[in-house]
């Protein structure tokens, strides 16, 4: 066992040395380095095709080093600028206002569309030929599904609330049977395929889609506009206020003159702008967004502000007040089940035959298992189990979707492999740190190692570590450490640390006490008891648990890419949201191959270490 511990210590030291030698920490942006954030209205690959030529010109003409950062999430972009992870950004109107409020940013240019307009419109789309009209949409009979944009989207959320639903005092959740938020492109594709009845979008997005891939163009042609908003301010370019005056001057000069040069060079720039659906960038300041601030104030004024939040006792009384009127009878069933479980736990047992089936215990078993069946029955409707028949009746839809997956697109397979390798590295380091967390906490949480006044608080700490979702932890650490894979490493380490510590403690509690007593009998200290009496018994099981969590983390780490924590997750969700199932099939294939290889590696390690 000592050799195993020494090997682990040496391995950890080797990781640290290798990391220091091979990895150069990302330096803080200097005055000549600019990170430029761009909202991915479409998938990242498409947006990069449109924007990279302009970014190349920005670098060559200003002498600045510019790196593009794409995200489909407005909040991620605003937070990135707030914590100086990005210094310049292209924002639509409402996110630009939030960046001014929260990210020390200011407007210095605005976009002008390819028709010379400085405004655009929000629209609501319905499937062409569905017969859905605006009057039918506003009937609010709770039979239609509706798609909003990002919560901070001007055209996707703010404008429909201000100009359509707000004046009619319509609450969306009461009006529609389902309301969801998604990107503009995902909303458009969902409408065209019939996944939602209607959804918001905007005139700029529709222009993009009609010049996009054949699949996207065909999809937008299957939709029609049933509502158009008044004019909205176009997108704007912002930079952080604390940039040097020299960098600000370079940025202003580049954007406000881009596409205005005569001759072939000007023609080339104008062609780049045309692909972006713009004709120019005009000078602007924060006052350009004043209409958006007025719209936000309108929504805030329409939102009812409740009084003092009710206390827990008041909520309890309010809930069970419905029971007296017969409205919440299931609460009584819940209380009966709780009483039955408590009785089963604390009822006196026959010392001679603890498992004897006494009449009281048989009655308790009937109550508990009958209650489980009852809960399943009353949950049938709320979880829509009746839709199970649709798997068969809508088999044609399933077949069409399956056929899309059977035509994989291997064009970008190298990018997918590289992203998956980063995901595996995130899982590797996250699991390694989790083991370092779990070993001491697992011992402290064991009843046969720690006294109750230590064991119980540690158990509650483990509950917290396991309960907080990885996405929440990663989002919190993105604020502290910035965008990138390290936030994903920490998120996995914390959650997995809690899981492994619980499993480690349960393994410790099931050991044979005789080796521990033997160490104690020869005068060994408490530490010696753990090292020589406990660890040799649990090491094989701990190793198995750790390797299994590594396999699991390689899968779960893909989700963290969605919020900017690196890895293959962003590519996976981009392809799903864009309904590019050929690309999705290849990404899934890469993940399956990677997880299978990790499984084979785990088997090899288990056979050698156990």
Summarize the structure.
Helices cover 62% and strands 11% of the residues. It has 610 residues and is of the alpha/beta class.
Overall description:
There is one protein chain. This protein is α/β, with parallel strands linked by helices. It contains 26 helices and 13 strands. The strands form three sheets. The chain has a six-stranded mixed β-sheet, with helices on both faces. A five-stranded mixed β-sheet has the order 8-7-9-6-10. Strand 1, helix 2 and strand 2 form a beta-alpha-beta unit. Helix 20 (452-467) packs antiparallel against helix 22 (485-509), helix 22 (485-509) packs across helix 24 and helix 24 (526-560) runs antiparallel to helix 26 (581-609). It is globular.
Helices and strands, with pairings:
Elements lengths: L1 H21 L10 E7 L4 H19 L2 E7 L2 H9 L5 E4 L1 H10 L2 E9 L5 E2 L1 E6 L6 H4 L7 E4 L5 H12 L6 H4 L2 E4 L2 H10 L4 E5 H8 L3 H7 L2 E6 L3 E2 L2 E5 L4 H13 L5 H13 L2 E6 L6 H13 L9 H13 L4 H18 L12 H20 L11 H4 L1 H11 L7 H32 L7 H16 L2 H12 L3 H25 L3 H9 L4 H35 L8 H9 L3 H29 L1
Helix pairs in contact: 2-12, 3-4, 6-13, 14-15, 15-16, 19-22, 19-24, 19-26, 20-22, 21-22, 22-24, 23-24, 24-26, 25-26
Number of strands: 13
Taking all residues together, what is the mean pLDDT? 78
Q: What characteristic shape results from the CA principal axes? A: globular
Strand order of the largest sheet: 2-1-3-12-4-13
Can you tell me the residue ranges where pLDDT is under 50 for at least 5 consecutive residues? 1-30, 305-309, 322-327
Would you tell me the structural class of the helices and strands? alpha/beta
Largest sheet at a glance? 6 strands, mixed
